[in-house]
TrEMBL record, chain A:
SUPFAM superfamilies: NagB/RpiA/CoA transferase-like. Residues 98-196 form the LUD domain. PANTHER family: LACTATE UTILIZATION PROTEIN C (PTHR43682). Gene3D superfamilies: NagB/RpiA/CoA transferase-like. Pfam families: LUD_dom. The lineage of its organism: Bacteria, Pseudomonadati, Campylobacterota, Epsilonproteobacteria, Campylobacterales. It comes from Sulfurospirillum multivorans. This is Lactate utilization protein C. InterPro entries: FTHF_cligase-like_sf (IPR024185), LUD_dom (IPR003741), NagB/RpiA_transferase-like (IPR037171).
UniProtKB/TrEMBL annotation, chain B:
This is Lactate utilization protein B. The keyword Iron-sulfur applies. It comes from the Bacteria. InterPro entries: 4Fe4S_Fe-S-bd (IPR017896), 4Fe4S_Fe_S_CS (IPR017900), FTHF_cligase-like_sf (IPR024185), Helical_ferredxn (IPR009051), LUD_dom (IPR003741), LutB/LldF (IPR004452), NagB/RpiA_transferase-like (IPR037171). Keywords: 4Fe-4S, Electron transport, Iron, Iron-sulfur, Metal-binding, Repeat, Transport. PANTHER family: LACTATE UTILIZATION PROTEIN B (PTHR47153). One of its GO terms (biological process) is lactate metabolic process. SUPFAM superfamilies: 4Fe-4S ferredoxins, NagB/RpiA/CoA transferase-like. GO terms for molecular function: 4 iron, 4 sulfur cluster binding; metal ion binding. Residues 294-314 form the 4Fe-4S ferredoxin-type domain. The keyword Ligase does not apply. PROSITE patterns: 4FE4S_FER_1, 4FE4S_FER_2.
Length: 196, 457
C-alpha cells in the first residue's frame, strides 16, 4: 500500500462520526465603520504604513518625485505611470530585481478592519517584486474599500489560471528581539497605499 | 528516557529576574491580544464558527484531503504523502537532490522542527538557512525555538547581540534591536538571493481551490519562495480547510490571537509555482491519525498554532519553552506530546494549574485544560506517576471517603501544624510546601463555620 493510501485509510478508520458537525455557513454579522477611509488610514498607520489620497496618476508621479528622491531603481506595474527605470517583464530572472528601491503595484481593494490591500496582478511576471523591493507603493482605485475580511473574501476567487494573490498590511516587521517592534524585516521597509 | 517538567522549570526559574522578564514579555502580548479581541463584538461568534469548521473538517478529513490533492494536481502542484517524519525528510531530500540544491532557505514551520529536518538535511550536505529572524537567532545558537510564534522569546537583546557579533560581525556591545534586525536583513538577503530552493510551512490548505496560504510578518516565506525555481511546502494533515471563504474567519482570528495585530503583514495564497518553476506540497501524518481516533483529544488537531495558550499560561510564562522538552511547548504541547509518547512526556499534563485560561483564549476552542485533566488520569492509569505523588493521592482519596475521619484529621491538623517544627513540616513528603508557605491555620473548619452561620446543629 502506498503511503497515500495508508494515510487515507487510517484517517477513514479514525475520523470522528458526529452527525452534528455540518459545515457552517460563514455569515457573521461583522463590525462596520462609519468612515471607511479614516478607519483604513488609522489601522494602516498602526501597523507602520501610510495612506494618501491623490487625484490622478500625474499627481502620483509628483508625489514619487517629492517623497522618494533617493530611489534610483523604480519598477512600476501600473499602466500610465511614467516613473520606471526598469521593466519588470524584461528579465526572465527575478533575482535581477534585488536592486529595486521602489516598486509601485496595483491593489484591487483595501480592507478597513486591518489595513490590508488585496493584490492579484495577473500580468505581473515576478511576484518576487512585492517582497524584494526596499519600498512599496500600492495604488488602489478610490472607493474600493471594504469593512472586513468577510466582505473581502466574497471578492476573491482563484480560477484555473490564477496562481498567486495576497494581502499586504503595511511594511514588513518583526518583534523577535525582545519584543521590540522593528519595521523592515525582510520585505519592504515602507509601505504607502495611494487611493486614486 | 522520560523527562520531568518541574525539574527543568526549576532551572529556568532559578534566574528570578529573567523569569520575571519572560513572564512580563508574554503577558504584554496577551494584553495586546485582549485589546484586539475586545475591539470586535463578533469575537465569540468567530471562535464558534472556527470551531465548527474545524470539527466538521476533521470528521471529513480524508474527503477534503483528496479534494485538495485533486485540485492542486490540476494546477500543476505536485503532492506527496508521508506517513512519518522519516518519510517526510526523505521526500524533501530527494526533491532537493533532483534539483541539485546545495543551499535552501526555510521559513518557520513547526512541522519540520517536529520531523528534525534540519539536522537530517545537514547530514546529507545541504545548507539549511532558517530565515525567520527569531528562528535564525536560535539556529545560529544551535538551540531549538522556545515558543511557536516567538522562537527567541527566552533571549535578551544582549544575547542576540553577542550571537550576531560572533556570526554576523556586528559591532561589539551593540544590542540595539533595530541595528541587529538590519544586520540580519543584510545577511539573509544574500542567502535569499543565493538559495537553490525554498521551503515553507502551511497555515491553511484550501480543499476547494487546491492552494495553500502562508502568513508571516517578516516577508521571509514569500521572499524565499518567489526567487528560486523550487518551492516545497510541508503540512500536517490537519491544516486543511474546506473553502476559500473560511479564511475570512481564520485570518481574522490568527494574528489577533497570536500577537495582537489585526492581521499578519503578508497573507499569501499560493496556487502555483513561479514562472518555469515547481511547487510541491508534502502532506504528513506522523501520528496525527492516531489522535484523530481518540474522541477525548481529537480537538487538539484543530490548533492553528497561534501561541495564545502559551502566552496566557501562568506555568509557561514562568517555566519557559525548554522546560517542556517537546517541539511545541505550553498547554497545546502538553496534550500533543503525551498523545505521542505518554511515558516520555508524563509530567507535562501536570504543568498546569487547571485555571482554564488556555481553553478560554483559544481561537478555535481547543479544550486544552479539559484534555490536560484527562491526560493526568491516563498517566495515573498507566502507572507513570511518581510513587510519592501517587501515594499522597491514594491517601487523600482514602481519607475523603471517610467523612468522620476527615473531620478528625482536619481538627488535628489545625491543632498540630502551627506547633510543628519547620523541618518536619516542609519535609520532602510535603510536595505542596515546596517553594510555598502554608497559609495560617484557622481555628474552625469550613464545615463548622458553615453550620454556625446557618444555625445548623
Ligand atoms: S491550542 Fe489554540 S490557543 Fe493554543 S496555539 Fe493552538 S490555536 Fe492557539
Amino acid at each position: 500500500m502506498s503511503s497515500r493510501e495508508a494515510i487515507l485509510k487510517a484517517i477513514k478508520e479514525a475520523k470522528p462520526h458526529n452527525s452534528e458537525s455540518a459545515l457552517p455557513e460563514v455569515n457573521i454579522l461583522h463590525t462596520t465603520y462609519d468612515d471607511l477611509d479614516a478607519k483604513f488610514a488609522t489601522t494602516l498607520a498602526g501597523v507602520g504604513g501610510n495612506a494618501v489620497h491623490l487625484d490622478s496618476l500625474s499627481a502620483v508621479e509628483g508625489y514619487i518625485k517629492e517623497h522618494y528622491k533617493e530611489a534610483k531603481v523604480i519598477v512600476s506595474t501600473v499602466e500610465g505611470l511614467h516613473v520606471n527605470t526598469k521593466e519588470l517583464g524584461a528579465t526572465d530572472d527575478p533575482h535581477t530585481l534585488k536592486d529595486v528601491d521602489l516598486a509601485i503595484i496595483k491593489g484591487e481593494f483595501a480592507v478597513a478592519e486591518n489595513g490590508a490591500v488585496w493584490i492579484k496582478e495577473a500580468d505581473a511576471r515576478h511576484r518576487a517584486l512585492y517582497f524584494i523591493t526596499q519600498k512599496l507603493m500600492i495604488i488602489v482605485p478610490k472607493e474600493q474599500i471594504v469593512h472586513s475580511m468577510h466582505e473581502a473574501y466574497t471578492r476573491i476567487s482563484f480560477g484555473d489560471k490564477d496562481i498567486f494573490g495576497l494581502f499586504i498590511s503595511g511594511p514588513s516587521k518583526t518583534a523577535d528581539i525582545e519584543q521590540s517592534l522593528v519595521i523592515g524585516a525582510h520585505g519592504a521597509t515602507e509601505a504607502c497605499v495611494v487611493f486614486i | 528516557m522520560s523527562h520531568n517538567h518541574s525539574e527543568l522549570a526549576d532551572k529556568f526559574a532559578s534566574n528570578v529576574e529573567r523569569m520575571k522578564w519572560h513572564d512580563k514579555a508574554l503577558w504584554f502580548v496577551r494584553v495586546k491580544r485582549d485589546t484586539q479581541a475586545k475591539s470586535l463584538d463578533e469575537w465569540e461568534e468567530l471562535r464558534n464558527t472556527a470551531d465548527k469548521i474545524k470539527s466538521h473538517t476533521l470528521s471529513h478529513l480524508d474527503e477534503y484531503l483528496e479534494q485538495f490533492e485533486k485540485n492542486a494536481l490540476a494546477r500543476g502542484i505536485r503532492v506527496h504523502w508521508a506517513k512519518d517524519a522519516k518519510e517526510h525528510n526523505e521526500i524533501v531530500l530527494d526533491l532537493l537532490r533532483s534539483h541539485n540544491a546545495k543551499m535552501i532557505v526555510k521559513s518557520k514551520s513547526m512541522l519540520t522542527e517536529e520531523c528534525h529536518l534540519n539536522p537530517y538535511l545537514e547530514e546529507h550536505g545541504i545548507e539549511v538557512v532558517d530565515t525567520d529572524l527569531g528562528e535564525r537567532i536560535v539556529q545560529l545558537r544551535n538551540e531549538p525555538p522556545s515558543h511557536i510564534v516567538l522562537p527567541a522569546i527566552h533571549l535578551k537583546k544582549e544575547d542576540v547581540g553577542t550571537t550576531f557579533e560572533k556570526f554576523l560581525n556586528t559591532q561589539k556591545g551593540n544590542s540595539d534591536p533595530t541595528y541587529l534586525t538590519r544586520a540580519a536583513r543584510a545577511h539573509l538577503r544574500e542567502k535569499f538571493v543565493g538559495a537553490d530552493a525554498s521551503m515553507t510551512g502551511v497555515n491553511f490548505a484550501i480543499a476547494e481551490t487546491g492552494g495553500i496560504v502562508v502568513c508571516t510578518n517578516e516577508g521571509n516565506a514569500d521572499l524565499g519562495a518567489s526567487l528560486p525555481k523550487l518551492h516545497i511546502a510541508c503540512m500536517g494533515i490537519e491544516k486543511i480547510i474546506p473553502r476559500l471563504k473560511d479564511l475570512s474567519i481564520f485570518t481574522r482570528l490568527l494574528a489577533r490571537s497570536a500577537t495582537g495585530q489585526p492581521v499578519t503583514t503578508y497573507t499569501s495564497h499560493y496556487h502555483g509555482a513561479v514562472e518555469g518553476g515547481e511547487m510541491h506540497v508534502v502532506i504528513v501524518d506522523n501520528g496525527r491519525s492516531k489522535i484523530l481516533a481518540d474522541k477525548r483529544y481529537v480537538k487538539s488537531l484543530q490548533c492553528i498554532r497561534c501561541g495564545a495558550c502559551l502566552n496566557t499560561c501562568p506555568i509557561y510564562r514562568r517555566s519557559g519553552g525548554y522546560s517542556y522538552g517537546y517541539v511545541i511547548p505550553g498547554p497545546i504541547g502538553s496534550t500533543l506530546a503525551p498523545s505521542r509518547d505518554l511515558k516520555k512526556y508524563y509530567s507535562l499534563p501536570f504543568a498546569c494549574s487547571l485555571c482554564f485560561s488556555c481553553s478560554n483564549i483559544c481561537p478555535v476552542k481547543v479544550d486544552l485544560a479539559e484534555q490536560l485533566y484527562l491526560k493526568r488520569q491516563d498517566v495515573v492509569d498507566a502507572g507513570y506517576l511518581s510513587p510519592i505523588k501517587l501515594n499522597a493521592l491514594k491517601m487523600a482519596t482514602w481519607l475523603m471517603c471517610r467523612p468522620k475521619l476527615m473531620d478528625f484529621a482536619g481538627l488535628m491538623a489545625r491543632k498540630m501544624v502551627p506547633i510543628l517544627p519547620r523541618v518536619l513540616l516542609y519535609s520532602k513528603f510535603n510536595l505542596w510546601g515546596k517553594n510555598r508557605e502554608l497559609p495560617p491555620f484557622p481555628k474552625n473548619s469550613f464545615k463548622e463555620l458553615y453550620k454556625a452561620k446557618k444555625g445548623i446543629k
